[in-house]
Amino acid sequence: MTRSHSPMAETDVMAVNEMNAVRASVWQLLSSLFAKELSTERIAELAAAADFWQAFTQEAELEVAAAQIQNALIEASLAHSDNARLELAADFCSTFLQNAEHCAAPYASLYLGEDIGDEQDEDKAQAKGLYGEKHQLMSDYLRSAGLGLATEFREPSDHLAVILALMAHLCTSASVESQRAFLESAILSWLPEFNARLGKLKLESPLYGALGDFTLAWAKLDAEILRG
């Protein structure tokens, strides 16, 4: 005996798939913003996406940070010289590319208490931590998902941009349980501490501080969505 198709069930599946696609697009955007400096063209593109940023005003947790990101992008896009882009590039460098003790280094290994031994040399200790257990774990995740890092992205696999991109992939390819487990163990386990460090930095633009706030709020909201 065969069961007839349920229009309601098909509608529900379509709604879930659409929601997952939206979630994936947000995670992918966040990944791209942490991955590299913004070009002039990318700044203009993001600044013009008013509908995208306005969509987050319906969520109290995201509203303020979304508005700050949008305003910072608009201000940079309206500048009559390249100074605004250069300021954002300098902020990106100051925020993510300096010595780990003086910036908000975007590597999970540095926040999850990985034992890096008794190295006396700070650079050696940092390198050992960056390419240690968490890097290997994320590399294994990527391989199991059939993914790899772009050749031009020369960062450890536990870089925040990589982890967020993998979360985007899981949104449309993994079970709810797998998504929730990854979000809680690979992102929410260290993102609050990372964002706290980010919030203490003195930067020219509010963009990256707001980006950190938005990413943390979005991660918490998405975890709630996955918990049902």
Can you describe what's shown?
This is Chaperone protein TorD. Keywords: Chaperone, Cytoplasm. InterPro entries: Chaperone_TorD, DMSO/NO3_reduct_chaperone, HscB_C_sf, TorD-like_sf, TorD/DmsD_chaperones. It is found in: Cytoplasm. The chain is mostly helical and 228 residues long. The chain contains eleven helices and no strands. The protein starts with 6 loop residues before the first helix and ends with a helix. The chain has helices at 7-35, 40-47, 50-54, 60-78, 83-97, 122-130, 133-144, 160-171, 176-187, 191-199, 207-227. It has one domain: TorD-like (Orthogonal Bundle).
Which key phrases capture this entry?
TorD-like, mainly alpha, 11 helices, 228 residues
As an assembly, this protein is single chain
Highest CATH level, the class: Mainly Alpha
Work out the count of structural domains.
1
The total count of strands amounts to: 0
* Helix and strand sequence: HHHHHHHHHHH
Q: What's the mean pLDDT score? A: 86
Q: CA-to-CA gap between the ends?
A: 33 Å
The helicity comes to: 55-70%
Named at the architecture level, the CATH assignment is Orthogonal Bundle
Please give the count of helices. Answer: 11
Function: Involved in the biogenesis of TorA. Acts on TorA before the insertion of the molybdenum cofactor and, as a result, probably favors a conformation of the apoenzyme that is competent for acquiring the cofactor.
GO biological process, one term: protein complex oligomerization
Keywords: Chaperone, Cytoplasm
Family: Belongs to the TorD/DmsD family. TorD subfamily.
